[in-house]
Amino acid sequence: MNFHAYYRDVKPVTACLIGTGDFGNSFIAQTERIERVTTRVAVDLDAARAARAFAASGVDSARIAVCATAAEARTAWEAGKAIATSEPALAADLPVDIIVEATGDPEGGARHARLAIEADKHLVMVSKEADSLIGPGIAAMAADRGRIVTPVDGDQPSLLIGLVTWAETLGFEILAAGKSSEYDFVFDAASETIDSNGRVIDVAGFAALDRLGTRDVADAVAERSRLAAALPQKLVPDLCEMTLVSNHTGLMADRPDLHVPIARIEELPTLFALAADGGLLSAGRRIDVFQCLRAPHELSFAGGVFVVVRCTHEATWKLLAHKGHVLSRDGSTALLWLPRHLLGLEAATSVLDAAGLGVSSGAVTPAPHTDLVMHADRDFAAGEVLTMGGHHHEVADASARMIPAAPLSAEAPAPFYLVSNRTLVRPVSKGDLFRLADVEIDAASELLALRQAQDARFFPG
Description:
With 461 residues, this protein is an alpha/beta fold. Helices cover 32% and strands 21% of the residues.
């Protein structure tokens, strides 16, 4: 694609960013360097922090206005200033073209999505927590008003949706699609240790499994996982992001907690093949994640995305293998991959697509195919709070599962981020999935209301 030609006639777009964390700071800085997107409004719980995000991105302090009222914001807007505020409703009332929701807060994300759509703004959903739960519903709400909701370019869901739809357009038979997890598993053969995100563990015996060779795939994957059990291997955010991709592509999980093998890049087409052909999968069109195994001197997958496709024309794939493309050990499947994950540095293209061209980086009409639900990894007592926190927005002693989507009901497994931060009203046993009736939810919850509206639209009757 020639991007210069693609965006040549797009009018300049003004954006409002809600949430000035790592992504938000990168996004503001990037839009200060490009021509067609300008971030005019930044919203944070602390307006001063939003102002600091503008300043850190090179905006002259004389151009930054901290605003607490609609009148102040209007005056600042007309003066051409960058507006920092703590009130999303105030920002939605300004003549911005698009809202970028990047708080990572499920309830906050739901509220901000509703405000944006009701104000007839396009919407970029960076907050995967809310998107995994209400994404198809808010996309449909926006479409009713002639507006676009899009995932954000640069994050793995959008990148993978693009790769999957590219492969499908070209007629490839997809067996699996997925991404690498956030931090590589860097194996030092001399010391038999693995370093992941600065944490080093001993993995005595791992050297014998460093290369797959002719080993049975399932056995090798299980043994690697056992030896590296001290490191987290199946992360809630990874399953959350794959839930988004499922809802945009229809690809499904092969098992509720995914396979998530510790694997070298060149092993992926062998591992993500059908079990009947020696791989891990029960069927095709599956979605998964892997932990990138490499030596300290070897290249990373860099948080990239992949598809594994069937090699349907032997001569073509022999030719491509000679050119360095990665095929399975029996030559029947191939890896097609993008080693890129720049997040805030790529987000401007999704802004231009939505507000400038009226298209989404995701599906034309996403639908609820998968729900991300919460699994109890220990016994929980009534009165405990399922507090969500940390860098990965997880709940202690709970993990995630991907199951076929269904409408909410009291005794059905409940979406992970709907029960997060709620108080348990009855005990939940280890090994069970949390149910809606297990938790106390405020009737005023916007997340609950938007999910109910989504269910009514997609599961009528």
